[in-house]
Design a protein that fits this description.
The structure holds two protein chains of two kinds. Chain A is α+β, with helices and mostly antiparallel strands. Chain A has six helices and five strands; from the N terminus they run E-E-H-E-E-E-H-H-H-H-H. The mean pLDDT of chain A is 97. Chain B is α+β, with helices and mostly antiparallel strands. The longest helix of chain B has 28 residues, at 117-144. The chains are: A alpha+beta, B alpha+beta.
Chain lengths: 152, 749
């Protein structure tokens, strides 16, 4: 066990955990931020996507010990009240079915759009290809990313 | 005007307080901890008045509607309250929706599955809404001393034109809640619907996109421990011994033990899985600690002998034998080939098929097959349980709480009235969560450790647990005469452990000489409902075969099907044909029109398919293009007859998802076994459809009619497989008979 200082959603947090613990479980079990989801544990499905200094990463295979000074943003910290352009676009297109993967999809999309504000369809498809949606809402996800790009 | 007896909904008028176990309405504390939005906070009334179990009206006119069925993504939590709200005649913007707990004394059929949710709730929900509205009208009539018949309602307001009196529902709700329930009420005319038929956003949309705790796996309670299970690595194995010394000494670990999920003499219902009846539990403080301790277990497994179990399911009580042994996909294939050549049970026979085959001008025979499939819901199996001396609280993903409550009661020895199941939003279902073994497991673990626990499966536990879609095969044979008329049709289908032949479905009824046969083989690999059970294979086989048959007959595939449907309508063969030829033809004609079938485009390869299952008719056309040598699904057209569409945009979303799911499973879906061991245990090995492989666009069109609504979760899924196979044939000049198609020679992009 080790006490670690983390910067999560703009707040300083101290957690006392095994340093090998993946960030996913630190968020879910220790910081009560359960919007970041467990899907596969091997960085294949994208449900656990968070931002590390603004870059989308899979939190399920990221040991908390390597975070250091980097800032973590989770879906809970993306906006105050679901008003980030990507979240708004998700609502406009009524994307979710079961909803389980959508936080991860949104985090991937938000980080992608920061780097690619005017993406082509192909760029969107490539950027979003790592996030599984078992309900098959891919067309709405793509449409929502385009809407968010147009509005932000 | 439709008058409906309110006793259709008798249980909804039972008041919570009048029931034994009324305390079951208590909410878990974490829900109360959620901060309401400003809008909600302003709308909080001082007092709520319950008109029936679905409807509460606040003194300020706020409306709370209960959504009875578990939500797994088909959007019933929005569409069911829409039905209530329309008959109640309220402003949808003022409605708050709450997920009901499992409470069979107060709600009809709290089961999500079989695409039956809306179909079976349609009348009870309309009745509940209309009855509450009538009680509000009666209360206003009493208060104003005017005839009830002269009072009209609109958007939560009551009006009496002659006297000019007007009031909000909230003003008379207190009185209305005390009035007798009318024996009969009038339902709205379909043309007067204001909410039904207009698209409403998912009521949980904002909570989903902001990551609120909605799912069972998100649940937490003070003092809660985390539990995981280890199950045998192969079907046909059981636990022999466990060396838990290393695991026990690891940080945060509280307990390790072997437990039985069902008592040995337990009489199972149809939803009690027989997969692994003995598991190893690891319980500790946090998920990561428990996950690591689980890896440190040294478990010795041994082979299971044949096992007899008593199952009291829909087919009545019977003893089933679960064979011992370690099964492999290769052996299954050999056995299935052998079985296909043997005699099978005759499921339906019309005319003299063999004589017709003898006089045929042309005969076509083809065999189709498909593998086991895992559901792979994005949310792995999990459940919260808190079992105390005399009661149990459970919260988790479950499609069929009714069945599992009895099982839990039998296993933990607590009467079912004291078992409280709260219905979590499910991170996908697809049939998997009709089987509530995880609730029993969580309850047993909580009882043993005497603490609230949340049990979570790893993805690997989840994917290798069983309850798969069965593996199937079907051989089709058809005879054409010299004029290319279909004179005989024969289907022989088999599977492990069940076949997928629906003998009374099309083209039965359209052919003079018809034979349907089925066979099955026992197995210890467990299976379960998977989106459109049976249909999810047989539709693909049948509709691929009809495509090839139409080609042999020199006919357009849509015209060929329409001719058969016309025959079935005008001169039906047999009496038990399980479809309406007009509605079937209706979706084919609509998809023909919408896809501009008659005007083929260069370099676009098209396939068509149509199927009727789960009370809904669907026809689909898939357009493929070949880009960089890979087929790309450019566009999918679907035509659907499901009667009235309650929430059109959500219905389209469901249709799009089913089509994407179909393409994914047709190309990639497959679980195989070697010596009982599932060969895929996570998404690196089990390929799922991703963004790049999804169609570039999908159009879902609905036939407009006034028939009662039927379901949508399943029916758009089965036709995809053949529409895709038929389009691939056009693109590649080769027929695809074995799923997944990827295993044959192609991929998709």
């Amino acid at each position: 066990m080790a006490a670690l200082n983390l910067n999560v959603n703009g707040k300083k947090q101290i957690v006392d955990v095994d340093p090998n613990t993946p960030v996913l479980w630190v968020l879910r079990d220790h910081l009560n931020l359960v919007g970041t989801k467990y899907g596969c544990g091997i960085a294949q499905c994208g449900a656990c996507t968070i931002h590390l200094d603004g870059v989308a990463v899979r939190s399920c295979q990221l040991p908390v010990s390597v975070i250091g000074e980097k800032s973590i943003t989770t879906i809970e910290g993306l906006s105050e009240s679901a008003d980030h352009p990507v979240q708004q676009a998700w609502l406009e297109h009524d994307v979710p079915q079961c909803g389980y993967c959508q936080a991860g999809q949104i985090m991937t999309a938000a980080a992608f759009l920061k780097e690619h504000p005017n993406p082509s369809d192909e760029e969107i498809e490539t950027a979003m290809n790592g996030n599984l949606c078992r309900c098959g809402t891919y067309l709405r996800i793509k449409a929502a990313v385009k809407t968010a790009a147009a509005k932000s | 005007m439709t008058i409906i007896k309110t006793n259709i909904n008798r249980r909804s008028f039972l008041k919570a307080s009048a029931l034994a176990g009324g305390g079951m309405m208590l909410s878990f504390s974490w829900l109360a901890g959620c901060t309401p939005t400003t809008e909600e906070a302003l709308a909080l009334p001082k007092e709520w008045f319950e008109l029936n179990s679905y409807i509460k009206i606040g003194d300020n006119g706020a409306i709370t509607l209960m959504s009875p069925n578990p939500e797994f993504g088909s959007n019933v939590k929005t569409s069911m309250p829409m039905i209530l709200a329309d008959e109640l005649d309220v402003d949808w913007k003022k409605v708050t929706v709450e997920q009901a707990d499992f409470y069979p004394e107060r709600f009809n059929r709290q089961f999500t599955g079989g695409s039956m949710g809306i179909l079976l709730a349609w009348k009870p929900l309309r009745a509940a809404g209309a009855t509450a509205r009538q009680m509000l009208v009666n209360a206003a009539a009493q208060q104003w001393s005017v005839p009830a018949a002269e009072i009209t309602t609109e958007a939560g307001m009551l009006h009496h034109k002659a006297s000019g009196k007007t009031a909000g529902y909230g003003e008379v709700a207190s009185l209305a809640a005390r009035l007798a329930v009318p024996e009969e009420v009038a339902l709205k005319e379909i043309k007067d619907f204001k909410i039904i038929g207009s698209s409403k956003k998912n009521v949980d949309g904002t909570d989903i996109v902001s990551g609120k705790p909605l799912f069972g796996i998100d649940y937490k309670q003070e003092g809660m421990l985390v539990a995981m299970i280890a199950h045998p690595p192969a079907f046909g194995l059981k636990v022999k011994s466990v060396d838990d010394s290393a695991a026990r000494s690891m940080p945060g670990i509280k307990d390790v033990f072997i437990f039985k999920t069902l008592a040995d003499d337990y009489e199972r219902n149809g939803f009690d899985t027989t997969t692994f009846t003995e598991l190893v539990a690891v319980v500790g403080n946090s998920t990561w600690e428990v996950m690591n301790a689980k890896k440190a277990l040294k478990i010795e497994w041994e082979k299971k002998a044949d096992q007899q179990v008593v199952v009291n399911g829909w087919g009545g009580k019977k003893t089933e034998v679960i064979p011992g042994g370690l099964e492999s996909t290769m052996t299954h294939k050999t056995l299935m080939d052998e079985m296909s050549k043997k005699k099978a049970s005759i499921l339906r026979k019309d005319g003299d098929p063999e004589a017709a085959f003898k006089r045929a001008a042309k005969i076509l025979e083809r065999t189709y097959s498909a593998p086991y499939l895992a559901h792979n819901t994005m949310e792995p199996v999990n459940c919260f349980a808190h079992v105390t001396a005399d009661k149990a609280e459970l919260y988790g993903p479950i499609q069929a709480p009714e069945f599992i409550r009895n099982t839990i009661a039998a296993r933990i020895g607590i009467p079912k009235e004291n078992i409280h199941i709260k219905l979590a939003r499910m991170g996908g279902g697809f049939g998997l969560r009709a089987y509530g073994h995880h609730m029993v497991e969580a309850a047993v673990i909580s009882q043993k450790v005497k603490a609230p626990i949340k049990m979570v499966y790893t993805r690997e536990d989840d994917m290798t647990y069983g309850i798969y879609r069965p593996t199937y095969t079907a051989t089709y044979r058809a005879a054409l005469d010299k004029e290319n008329n279909l004179i005989a049709f024969h289907v022989k289908g088999g599977g492990i452990p069940e076949h997928a032949v629906h003998a009374m479905r099309f083209p039965a009824g359209a052919v003079d000489n018809y034979l349907a046969e089925g066979w099955s083989l026992d197995s210890n690999i467990t299976i379960g409902a998977f989106r459109a059970p049976g249909s999810n294979f047989i539709a693909g086989a049948e509709q691929s075969f009809l495509d090839e048959l139409a080609e042999l007959a020199g006919k357009d595939p849509i015209e060929f099907r329409l001719e058969l449907l016309e025959r079935s309508k005008t001169k039906p063969v047999g009496e038990k044909n399980d479809y309406d030829p007009d509605r079937y033809a209706g979706v084919l004609k609509l998809v023909k029109e919408k896809s501009q079938w008659s005007e083929p485009q260069p370099n676009v390869h098209r396939g068509v398919s149509a199927y009727f299952c789960h009370n809904t008719y669907v026809a689909e056309v898939i357009d493929l293009e070949i880009t960089n040598n890979k087929p790309v699904v450019k566009k999918v057209f679907a035509a659907v007859d499901c009667g009235i569409v309650v929430n059109p945009d959500a219905a389209i979303n469901m249709g799009e998802g089913a089509i994407v799911d179909g393409i994914g499973n047709a190309f990639f879906g497959e679980m195989t076994f070697v010596e009982g061991v599932p060969q895929k245990n996570n998404f690196d090995k089990y390929r799922m459809i991703r963004q790049k492989e999804a169609p570039r666009s999908i159009e879902v069109h609905f036939l407009k009619n006034e028939k009662d609504p039927s379901g949508l979760g399943e029916p758009l899924f089965p036709p995809v497989f053949a529409a895709l196979a038929n389009a691939l044939y056009k693109a590649k000049g080769k027929r695809y008979y074995q799923q997944p198609f990827l295993a044959e020679d192609i991929t998709i992009g």
